[in-house]
Amino acid sequence: MLSRVAASFYWLSRYIERSDGILRMLKINYASSQDAVREFTWEPVIRIYSGADQNLMNRLKNDSRAVLTYMVTDKTNPNSIMNMITLARENARSVQEHITRDLWQCLNDYYHTVKDPDIEQKLQKDDPISTLDVLTKQIMLYYGTAEVTMERGEGRSFMNIGKHLERAIQAIDIIDIKFGSISGNPDLLTNTTYWKHLLLSLGGYELYLKTYRAGLEAQNVMELVILNSDFPRSVIYSVNNIQVFFERLRNNSNREDYREISFQIGRLQSYIKYSSVASIQETGLHQFLTQIKRELYGIGTALNEHYFANS
Amino acid sequence: MYQSAHFNQYNAISGVWDEMYDANANIRDHYRKVIDYLAKESPDDLNKKEDLARRLFMSQGITFTVYNSGEGIEKIFPFDIIPRIITGDEWAFVEKGIKQRLTALNLFLKDVYHNQFIIKDGVVPIDVIYSCPHFLREMYKLDVPYDIYVHIAGIDLIRDEQGTFYVLEDNLRTPSGVSYMLENREITKRLFPDLLPTCNVRSVTEYPTILYKNLQSLSPRQNSNPTIVLLSPGIYNSAYFEHTTLARLMGVELVEGRDLVVHNHKVFMKTTTGLQQVDVIYRRVDDDFLDPLVFNPSSILGVAGIMSAYRKGNVAIVNAIGNGVADDKAIYSYVPDMIKYYLNEEPILKNVPTHQLRHPDELAYVFQNINKMVVKKTNESGGYGMLMGHAASEQEIEDYKKEILKDPRNFIAQPTISLSAAPCYIQGTLQPRRIDLRPYALCGPDGIEIVPGGLTRVALKEGSLVVNSSQGGGSKDTWVLA
């Protein structure tokens, strides 16, 4: 497979996965803003996806409709859904003959749905959850189509590596910010809605209830979203999948390149696998997450160098 | 005759060959089945079909992008739902004519880059060839596989008032549009279920298979599974959709210049498992951008050193480099002479009479009759840089004349040919619009094959004679009947 094609597969998936994460975040945060007794703040969301621009923060943090527009249709926001899908589609376009026609049509439909001027109108006037659901459904369709139609080959491996790398990074960002907010506000530690929304935005609320019947506790939440390998949005689940799909790229002609990255992935996998809530707390959650994130970025860089020929 | 009002309003343009109506305003036999079928549909149904066509094009991403104020706007190449129909006899004639013409043009290219007998025998003047910017000395004495230069040709045909076919242009470099031939047919299948078999329409789906077979036969390595690639300028090229379609249908790798590298006079592509040698390149990049070491040094679309690999015979390039000398508009008028010279045959397809403005007497004649002329630049295509004498204002004509006088070699003039018209579905009624025809001919070691069909381009503006997509043209599905 051409290096450029592999890179496009990888980035296509990363952008789609990121847009999926963003849509889920927006939906849950919007829902929780309707629950809020006092003024709801969008600050953590804005901080994850747009950094710490103070002007932007002041303009948006208490205005749900403005945040939705900014995160979905605003072209000046590099992480808006509009820009994500445009980039995903550009990548898909350059590998059009490698993805199935069904998948390409799926992306096209998603793109045209986001581009539809009605979307902005609806985000402003109607129930935003319906609109966010329409968009999320497009992504579900995309994942389903990819699963059903894509050849089980190299291309799909690169897609899945990109997808899980992005998913792990997103989960880390969300956990880091949510737990980080506690240090300034210890009351949150016992605030059930706070944890409920964290779990909902990662889609792990139901699994949590089934696993821990004792109510919402920070330590259990931490265990679920980092260490539970059955939870499809946990950090360890994503890292395991990176390993599984990378394994499939093993090949006689590139042993050196393979071994180097395989080593990096294995080291990260073990690091998380042999951690416990207690050991994480000992290291400090933030330090722990920062370390994992650094390793993930390292894997991305190594792929770039050894497989995408962008060195 | 028909109940539906939208079919009664059709007024054929007087003095123009109408593909559907004969001189007595009767529907020609080969259009009858389709018209019967359409007449049963209400305008509402037809509008729905038109809408379905638009949606199919959109969701399949069959679009081209127009860049405007930094933002890409996606457009679909307008598609008219009424097919253009060619009878079996008409097609047999066209097919024979194109094969003859292409055979001569291939011989001409071989000759002009080798012994140049045609110049020495005074059939084509030397200055016309050497002043052509597409005549490349880099190709001199270079042997290409099977002496084939033009592997893929798109010959533009038009019909005059009597329905006679004329060749308007030979496209021998990187003719585009064949994906629309294929896609238009797919869309028609969706729009009019069962209509194609009822009408005995010949299939066009063989095209990618034939092309692939030809490309495979050109591989310089004795290898049962040569590496064939399609070289595209990238996703911002307006024909990118076509490149991906062809690559997909042939199952070959689509590459960009940055994916290729030349090492030791061999071309390789960069893959996730290392370098892989490339045997055949179907390139959709112009000559000038192909190799920055030999041609345009600022080009980043090509591959540095590719020309050296080509000269060594380590890679086959399709179409051959330097074909522009044969489809130059100034050379065009010598094609009938070439056919006589190389084949000792009378040309089957006629040329449009062409005035070379480098001859002072022809220049004077054209200036006197400019209202009846179409003046074109010899090295431009896509309908750019053209003067339509009958429609231009005084001022435009004066400006254009000044432009011509700067370098008359760059211009030719042809009498305005009244293109034939075919019915189009426009705003709920059938209306005649002008059309041309571009069949695609594939030339391989086993001879020339032409898929029965082609791209019919249509000037959608009322009264317009320009069919180019950049100038408001659209296209139709093109049927050749068995």
Outline of the structure:
The complex is a heterodimer of chains A (311) and B (482). Chain A has 16 helices and no strands.
Protein traits:
heterodimer, A: mainly alpha, 2 domains, about 75% helix, about 0% strand, B: about 475 residues, alpha+beta, Dna Ligase, domain 1, globular
Question: Any idea what the radius of gyration of chain B is?
Answer: 23 Å
Question: What class, by secondary structure content of chain B?
Answer: alpha+beta
Helix content of chain A: over 70%
> H/E series of chain A, N to C?
HHHHHHHHHHHHHHHH
CATH class of the domain at 353-415 in chain B: Alpha Beta
Protein structure class of chain A: mainly alpha
Tertiary shape of chain A: globular
Describe the 3D structure.
The complex is a heterodimer of chains A (311) and B (482). Chain A has 311 residues and is mostly helical. Chain A is 76% helix and 0% strand. Chain A has 2 domains: 1-150, no CATH class; 152-311, no CATH class. In chain A, helix 13 (235-247) runs antiparallel to helix 14 and helix 15 crosses helix 16. The longest helix of chain A has 33 residues, at 3-35. In chain B, helix 3 packs across helix 7 and helix 4 (88-112) packs across helix 14 (335-343). Chain B has a domain at 353-415: Dna Ligase, domain 1, CATH 3.30.1490. The model of chain B has no long low-confidence stretch (mean pLDDT 90). Chain B has 16 helices and 23 strands. Classes of the chains: A mainly alpha (311), B alpha+beta (482).
